Amino acid sequence: MARVVVEVMPKPEILDPQGKAISGGLTRLGFTGFGEVRQGKRFELEVDGEATEEVLAQAREAAEKLLSNPVIENVVAVRVAEDAS
Amino acid sequence: MTAVAADPTAEATAESGVSVGVVTFPGTLDDRDAARAVRLAGANPVNLWHADSTLSGVDAVILPGGFSYGDYLRCGAIAGFAPIMESVVAAANAGMPVLGICNGFQILCESRLLPGALIRNDHQHFICRDQDLVVENANTAWTSDYEQGQTIRIPLKNGEGGFVATDEVLDELESTGRVVFRYQGFNPNGSLRDIAGITNEAGNVVGLMPHPEHAVETGFGPESGGGIDGQGFFSSAVRTLVAKG
Q1: Which top-level group of life is the source organism from (chain B) (predicted)?
Q2: Where would you tag: which of A2, A72, B68, B96 has the fewest CB atoms within 10 A of its CB?
Q3: Is B128 a catalytic residue?
Q4: Is A61 in the B-facing interface, judged by CB distances under 8 Å?
Q5: Is pLDDT above 70 for B7?
Q6: A2-80 sits in which CATH class?
Q7: CA dihedral defined by B233, B96, A69, B162, rounded to 10 degrees?
Q8: Which residue of chain A has the CA closest to B191?
Q9: Burial class of residue B116 in the structure, from the number of CB atoms within 10 Å of its CB (0-12 exposed, 13-18 middle, 19+ buried)
Q10: Which DSSP state fits B169?
C-alpha cells in the first residue's frame, strides 16, 4: 500500500507564534545553535493500490483545498512516501 | 392583540415573524446564547445542525462561537466544508444576512465567504476580556442599529483571533468600507490594522472575533459600560429583514 506525503508550512511573511514558543523552549533547554523556528504540518494519505499520477493530482488538489489555507500557508511538497511499510 | 411571553426563553412565535437559524457544529459552544439573543431581539431562533443540508426556511443565519470539530486542522477548516455550509454559502451569495462570531468568523474565512484568515494570537495566549470596538460601518445587515463611529463594549475570548490578509486585501477592505469593527484602545490578538470584524462586498455577511451574543442582557454582559452593547447586531438584522418583508 502506498502513501502520499503532503507538507504544509506557514507563509514566510505570516507570524508563526507556535514557532516562536518552540524557539523559546529550545533556548531554555540549552539548544543555543538555532535561530528562528517555524512549525508546519505533514499529512500522510494512504492510497489503495499504487500512487499513480492521477492519485498525486488528487492529493495536490486536496492539499490546496483542505489541507492548507492559501491565505496563510504554502504547500511545500506533495510526494509519494519512499519508505515501504 | 397577541400576548407576548414574559419569559424570553419560552417557545413563542416572535412578533417580527423573522426566523434566524443558529448552526450547531460538533464542538460549538455559544449556540444557546446566540439563540437567546435572537429571541430577545424579537425573532424566532431555529436550531440548524451541521449535517443538515437545508436551512429550514430561515431568513438569516448565525454561525456561533466555539471549537467546531475540535479546531482540528485549522480553526473552522472542517466546518467550512460541512454539509450545512453548502446551503449557507449559496444563501449568503444570494443576499441572506449571515453573521459569524469568533469560530463562526473563522468558518466564514475558511469557506471563503470573507477574505483573510485568523491565526494564533501574537502573544500566544488565550485571552478573555471586555473589549471596546469602534463601529466603522453602520450600513451592514448586522450593524444598521449602531451609529457610525460608535464605541461598543462586548466580551472577547479567543486563542486564534489574529486577523491577517495581504496588504492588497487589507487596502481593499479599508477603501471599500468593509472594515466593520476595529479594536479600540488595545489590540488583543495582533490583528493587522486592529481589525476586529469585516463584511463582504454586499454587506450581508459579517464576521467578527468578539461576542455580541454575550452582551444582550443587563447583569450578564460586561460589568462596565452598558453591558448590553451587543443587542444592536440582532435588532439590526431583524429590522433589515422586516423592512425587506
Answers
A1: Bacteria
A2: A2
A3: no
A4: no
A5: no
A6: alpha beta
A7: -10
A8: A15
A9: buried
A10: H
A43-81 core/surface letters (b: 16 or more CB in 10 A; e: else): bebebeeebeeebeeebeebbeebbbbebbbebeebeee
Quick count: other Cβ atoms within 10 Å of Cβ B235?
21
Over 70: is that where the pLDDT of B11 sits? no
Architecture of the B19-243 domain: 3-Layer(aba) Sandwich (3.40)
Which residues of chain B are within 8 Å of residue A18 when distances are taken between CB atoms?
A: 120, 124
End-to-end CA distance of chain A: 8
What is the least distance, in Å, from the CA of A71 to any CA of chain B?
A: 6
Residues of B in contact with A69 (CB under 8 A): 74, 77, 110, 117
Q: Which of B102, B110, B136, B214 is catalytic?
A: B102
C-alpha cell at A31: 539548544
* Interchain CB contact of A27 with B (< 8 Å): no
- Give the distance from residue A42's alpha carbon to the nearest chain B alpha carbon, in angstroms: 11
pLDDT in tens, B15-62: 789 999 999 999 999 999 999 999 999 999 999 999 999 999 999 999
Name the one residue in this structure whose C-alpha cell is 418583508.
B245
- Complex confidence, ipTM: 0.89
Q: Which residues of B touch A14 (CB under 8 A)?
A: 119, 164
Instruction: Enumerate the β-bridge partners of residue B154.
Output: B131
Average pLDDT over residues B97-115: 98
The CA distance from B62 to B19, in Å, is 11
Mind listing the pLDDT tens digit for each residue in A35-84? 999 999 999 999 998 999 999 999 999 999 999 999 999 999 999 997 65
